[in-house]
Write a structure and sequence with these properties.
single chain; 13 helices; 5 strands
Length: 281
């Protein structure tokens, strides 16, 4: 990972970091509705309560202040609610403990843990996550499209800023989706889950010589806002259910304010309040 960052060179004075799923790409809804939730119902045999459980899964992962949380964090939270409301979940405490203590929440990290721990819940969580990945791979590329206005916005922004994609998904999937729609030509770097957290990625990129007031994180989830705050950089929200309007404002207002130095302060606060309010926070 260090060599990967070492090869990166700052070209412009501004840096714009862009999340992928649910921000640039209209992929978050379809992945949760057709892959994450249904695979969980199947893995744990929750068909008797399917409608209510899937509705709650989507609330947790799409429409609240927990939007965009790590898949295993979302799974642990949802299964705790299932255990409290619908049926027992064998050895759930082992999954909860792993989620709370593991420094890395990924399939490879869980595979290593399963080799040392025979917990049935950890095994099922890994099987579920692998099934989710296979289900996502089966989605037609045409179903994983960018939001309207994204290509134009990135092309415009790239005139003034270096563009880095920051995603918590696997690198191959992100590259495939962005390449299919010709978005990679408007980027300088693509960083996925194997590169570390978004906050850590921003920190490493800033060491290339960017000034914090000239770095902007563009995202759709509270974790994106937190990554920006940890590094003292700016944040532009892509609002769930209002993505097209958000990208239009980014092009018409946000970018110009970034470049002319008027983004911080009143406009930044307004965007953060709008973002939190849209998620019911």
């Amino acid at each position: 990972m260090s060599d990967f960052f070492a090869a990166y060179e700052k070209k412009k004075e501004y840096l714009i970091c862009v999340d992928s799923d649910g921000c640039a790409m209209d992929t978050m809804e379809i992945k949760h509705r057709r892959c994450f939730g249904p695979c969980m119902v199947e893995e744990w045999g929750l068909e008797n309560w399917c409608t209510d459980i899937l509705t709650r899964w989507n609330e947790i992962n799409l429409y609240s202040m927990t939007r965009g949380i790590n898949r295993f964090q979302g799974l642990s939270r949802m299964l705790q609610e299932v255990r409290e409301t619908y049926c027992p979940i064998e050895d759930l405490d082992a999954l909860t403990a792993w989620v709370q203590t593991s420094p890395e929440l990924s399939n490879p990290a869980l595979e290593r843990t399963v080799q040392e721990n025979s917990s049935i819940c950890l095994q099922k969580a890994l099987h579920w996550s692998q099934a989710v990945n296979r289900s996502i791979e089966r989605l037609a590329q045409e179903e994983k499209r960018p939001f309207e206005g994204v290509r134009q916005a990135l092309a415009y922004a790239h005139r003034y800023a270096d563009i880095a994609v920051l995603s918590s998904e696997n690198l191959g999937a992100v590259l495939d989706e962005w390449d299919f729609y010709g978005l990679l030509e408007h980027t300088d770097m693509v960083l996925a889950q194997d590169a570390g957290s978004k906050a850590a990625c921003i920190e490493k990129l800033m060491k290339k010589g960017y000034v914090s007031s000239r770095v902007l994180m563009c995202g759709d989830a509270p974790g994106d806002l937190e990554a920006a705050r940890r590094n003292g950089v700016l944040f532009f929200p892509i609002l769930v259910r209002h993505e097209t309007e958000s990208w239009a404002e980014f092009s018409a207002v946000g970018l110009s304010k970034l470049v002319n130095g008027t983004y911080a302060g009143e406009y930044q606060q307004e965007k953060i309040e709008q973002f939190i309010g849209n998620l019911g926070g």
